[in-house]
Amino acid sequence: MATPVFVGASFSDRMMAWLKLLLEAALDLVFSLKHAAGLYRSFVRTVGLFLFYIYFLVNLHEPDVWLQVLARPFTASDSSLFVINLFWLAADTIVHPQLIRNMLALVAPYMLIHRLASVYLADIFEKEAEVGSRFINQAAFAEDYLTVRVRAGQLVESYHDSPIVQIGGPGWITVELDSAAVFESPDGNVRVIGPTSQMRHGRAVIEDFERLRQCVDLRDIIDRQEVASRSRDGILVKARDIQYSYSVYRGENPRKSLERPYPFDEEAVKNMVKSVIVPVAPGKQADTRPEWMRPLPGKLFVSINIEFTNFIRQSGLSEFFSSIGSPEEEALRRRSEQLGKDAQALAGQNGQSPEDVQLKAGAFNHRPKLADELFHSHRFTGFMKKKGLQVNWIGVGTWQTPSQIIPENHLEAWKTSQENRKKSSPENLNRLYKETYSGTLIQLINQMVLNPYYRLYSELEQGKKTDEQVIDALLEQYTGYLRNTSKHFEDHNQNVPEKIATALEFVDLLRYHQVGSDYYACLKATARPDTNIQGAMVYLIDVAFSSHPLPGYTPHPVMFDFRDQPQLNFEFYVNAPNTTIEPPAPQTLTMGRDELYVRAQFQASILPDTQSDGFVEIQQNGMSLSILPLKLEA
Question: Which of 121, 165, 249, 320 would staple 268 via disulfide (CB 3.0–4.6 Å)?
């Protein structure tokens, strides 16, 4: 505690300032959100109640009356009378009405305040009152802690609904050897909890209102990918089977042991967690999941892709495809030596020197050297360290080119490059760009649009496919192109164009076409165990009225027409005996003629060993459009 400086203050003012600082320090200690402060408050509460009890007990009688009461058992003439007097002594002290009345007057307000606080807290977090009461006991008095577990870089699924996860600490956490957990306190401080196997009882304390922010996998991760780009010569080159191993940054000199097989740097973990962002794109719903459920940005796909793409674009094909090397140079040198000897023997003149060999190997980067230069350089390792990652090893893989276009196009590209270097003409460069752009565009149109259509149409004429199969195949192929394009923008941290997102949404829906149906009643029911009642189940029932079958739902055709109405109201009902439906009333939703679907959600709770045969009904203006069977069981 810093010593305050008071200029020109009187002695009484300085004393008041000191008392104020002491009072603030005491209040900070008593009301701190720490586990130790909770134990202190629990101790004070227990000792306080005991002292009040002793105080009320002592004040029941005067001192001379107490002497008579305490001496009564010892004045008994036989053992039976001694037991009776001892019983009356206990009744006159421990369960005396005046004593019970005084203790009730002290405990009743505490219990009432505790109950009101529990209801208030449960209402805020939409939990049961018992959950709020238990949380207050945990936060205020460090009692009845719950425990959560982190394994393989994830929170174990059975703890997803724990109050520690939904509300925050206090509590216990068990972190296994392959993981780390990151917690954030109310003041914004971030704390990393590593494996807890060496801690007492194999667990660590979660302080009051500390919330779980992320779980981190400490193990080495092995991944692979492919990268395709055009070389400086204009040739499409693909690096196949690129394999690499990476992990969380482990520090400068990490030491592995049985107690800590996966060492890590805490600052790296914090940087990794702080770099998590929630992308928001126009026309796309933002990710509303908790942070600990979102994947960390701990993948090397984008970084590997950027490094390989830059290398291929800046290099000529001969720099990573070896066309001539040391064996060819040595063979030419031996041939020159032999020609020189033959010339001297025949003409007596000096022949060509071995050093005059005209064919030389160009600059060539073999794969191990390329891996060291790209991914073990200080620039790349420093960049990955800022992201909280490190690359353990990487294999470049193999190079692949379209062999049918290499001889002519590669030679033409080399000739054009030589002419451009000689002339240094911007017009030639622009012409080459336009020709390459046009050729690539024509190739993409043939590859993505025309060729699949002609191939599928030929199979249709031969009777190998039906109309429906041809439509499905075309939609599947176009959906793949749209998804790859969308992923390219996301990998480069760019917003997906609205046209692509809209096209992908419509094509995804068109894939589930069905001839002869105007609209569909779609149903999906998912179940999970009830966290409050052992053996009970909670069903989430999704009901939709859609112009197309929705992915993941069970569709039922419905013949319906909006006629001249721009929009109509639809009523959704759920009827399931022996269950509790929330919301209990039907839901009324408005759907426009041009809208794709409208959806309602219900929650049904069913007790253990219970079955319910119910139904879901969709009505419009009192007329039933569809009745879907619903079977629930626990």
Answer: 249
Q: Which residues lie closer than 8 Å to 61 by C-beta, 6 or more apart?
A: 69
Cis status of the peptide bond prior to 4, with omega within 30 of 0: no
pLDDT band at 352 (very low <50, low <70, confident <90, very high): very low
C-alpha to C-alpha distance for 263 and 255, rounded to whole angstroms? 7
State mean pLDDT over 627-631: 90
| pLDDT over 90 percentage in the chain | 11
Closest by alpha carbon to 571, among 537, 545, 550?
A: 545
- Residue-wise pLDDT for 412-450, tens only, equals 655 565 555 555 556 666 666 677 777 777 777 777 767
Distance from CA of residue 61 to its chain's centroid? 67
What is the pTM assigned to this prediction?
0.45
d(CA 595, CA 572): 17
Q: How many Å apart are CA 455 and CA 159, to the nearest integer?
A: 52
Residue among 439, 417, 440, 438 nearest 429 (CA): 417
Q: Is the pLDDT of residue 372 over 60?
A: yes
Stretch (H or E) spanning 15: helix 11-30
- Order across the sheet with 623-633: list the strands: 587-592, 567-575, 611-620, 623-633
Rounded CA separation 333/340 (Å):
11
Nearest CA among 628, 627, 625, 629 for reference residue 517: 625
Q: In angstroms, how far is CA 529 from the centroid of its own chain? A: 23
Residue linked to tokens 């207050």: 136
Could you tell me if 520 and 558 are in contact, meaning their C-beta atoms sit under 8 angstroms apart?
Answer: yes
What is residue 74's three-state secondary structure? helix
Query: For residue 409, what is the DSSP state?
Result: I
Which residues, including other chains, have CB under 8 Å from residue 440's CB and lie 6 or more apart? Answer: none
Whole-Å CA distances, 295 to 82, 159, 274, 278: 74, 18, 13, 11
Q: What is the DSSP letter of 232?
A: T
Determine contact, residues 276/294, Cβ cutoff 8 Å: yes
Q: How many helical (H) and strand (E) elements, i.e. helices and strands, does the chain have? A: 17, 20
Averaged confidence pLDDT in the chain = 76
Cα dihedral 167, 168, 170, 176 sign: positive
Looking from the CA of 96 toward its CB, the CA atoms found within 13 Å total 18
Segment 181-231, tens digit of pLDDT: 999 888 888 899 989 988 888 888 888 778 888 888 888 888 888 888 787
Nearest to 360 by CA among 390, 403, 325: 325
Beta bridge partners of 181: 193, 215
Higher pLDDT, 244 or 89: 244
Q: What is the pLDDT of residues 4-28, one digit of tens each?
A: 554 556 777 778 888 888 877 777 6
Confidence at residue 428, expressed as pLDDT on a 0 to 100 scale: 60
Instruction: Specify whether domain 517-633 bears CATH 3.40.50.300.
Output: no
